[in-house]
Amino acid sequence: MIAKIGRGESLYGALSYNHVKVQQENGQVLFTHNMMETPDGNYSVSQLSRSFEPYLIANRNTEKPVLHISLNPDPKDQVSDEKYKMMAQQYMREMGYGNQPFVVFKHTDIERTHIHIVSVCVDEDGKKISDKFEKRRSMKVCRDMEQKYGLIPAIGKEEPETRVLFRPVDYTEGNLKSQMASVLRHLPEYYRFQTLGEYNALLSLFNITTEKVEGELHGKPKHGLIYSALDENGKKSGPPFKASLFGIIAGLETLEKHFSKSKESLKDSEAKLLISNAIALAMKSSVGELDFKELLASQGINAVIRRNDAGRVYGMTFIDHNSKTVWNGSRFGKEFSANIFNDLWQNGVKSEMDNPHGTSALLPTLSGDFLPAEKPHDLFGFLETIGLEAVYDISGFIETTGSLFPNTHGENYEEFAFQKQMKKKKRKKRL
C-alpha cells in the first residue's frame, strides 16, 4: 500500500474534487469521523465543510491546514468497504489525526480502487499537529497494514530505480549523460504524447530538451535527435548528446511510432474531458499566471507555457500525471488558444464561456495572497509533497491532491460565501 499526503489551503478544492467523483458515480462517501451527519447519508460540499469550519477559524498561522491523503493498495488487492474504513481509521489514528474530523471517499474511476481522506492538520485550538518524521511514520503504518490486512507489499526491487527516474537533471553535477539516461530510457514507457512538441514539454519538467538534426551520410539523407540539458532559466547547458547514446527508445524512429500509438489510444480518452474541465475552471478562478499554474499543479497537471522573444504566449501544453498524458492546448479547442491566455494574463480579460462540455465553471476570483514564487519546473515541489518512497507502480504514483473542479452555481456561490465568512470570523476573533 502507498499513502500519499498532500497539504493545501483550499478545503473546498479538496472536497469538490472528491465530490465530483461521487456525482459522476465514480466514487462514494464511505465513512465520516467526528463530523456532522445528514438524515439521508448524502452530503454536499458545503455540508461537509461545516465540520471543519471551527478548526480553520481557530487556525493560528498554519499556511496549508488542509490534509488530502490517498491510500492506494496494489491493483491486485481485493479490499472490502469495511476494511477500507478500518484502514482509514488506523492510518489517521497512528499519524496523530485520530481525533480530527475527517471524511473518507472511495474512488472507482480507475482500475486501482483506492480511498481519499480529507481532514485538517490543526486542532480545535488552532495549533498545528506535528508532522515530524511524517514520511517515515507513514511508511511504517502502511507496512503494518499490509501485514494486518493481507495486502501485497508495496516495496520491491524496483524502488531505487524509481527514485532515479523522477529526478530532474542538474547540469551543475556533471555526469549529464547518466542523469539524462535515467529519464529518457523510461518516460515513453509511462507517458503518452502525440508530437515531438508534446514530448519536449514533458522533457522540460526534467530539465531536458531535444531537437531534430538532419544531414547526409554516404550520400543518403539522415535525420535523428540530439538531447541537451537545461539550466534553471530553461537555456541549454553542457554538450548535446546523440539519441543513440540512450538506446533505441530515445531515437526518432521509435518515438514516431509512439506518437502514432498514443494518438490512436487517446481518441476516446476520458482524460481529455477531465483535463479540459480542470483547465477551464482554473482559468475562471485564477488570479494571474502563477495562480493558474498552482491550481492545475494541485491536481497533478503541469502547464508548460511557450513564449516568443516579446513575451507573448504562442503555445500551451498540459501534462496530466494522473492519466500520464500530454496535450497541446489546441487539442481542447479554440477556447484554450494562446490568444485567450494572452488576454487573460496581460489584459485581465476572462473568457465568458461556460465549461466547454456543458458544466458551468464560473467561480469568484480567489485571493492571491498565497501565490508561490515562480519556479521553472514546479512539478517537483508537488512530487516532494506526496513523497516518492515505496512506489510500486510508476503508472499510478501521482494522484491529484485535490483542487477546484467544475461544480454547480449553487455550490460555487456557497464557496465564495464560505471564504468571506471565514475571513470575517477570523477578524472578529483577533478583535
From TrEMBL:
Protein origin, superkingdom: Bacteria
InterPro entries: Endonuclease_MobA/VirD2 (IPR005094)
Positions of the MobA/VirD2-like nuclease domain: 25-151
Name of the molecule in the record: Relaxase/Mobilisation nuclease domain-containing protein
UniProt lineage: Bacteria, Pseudomonadati, Bacteroidota, Flavobacteriia, Flavobacteriales
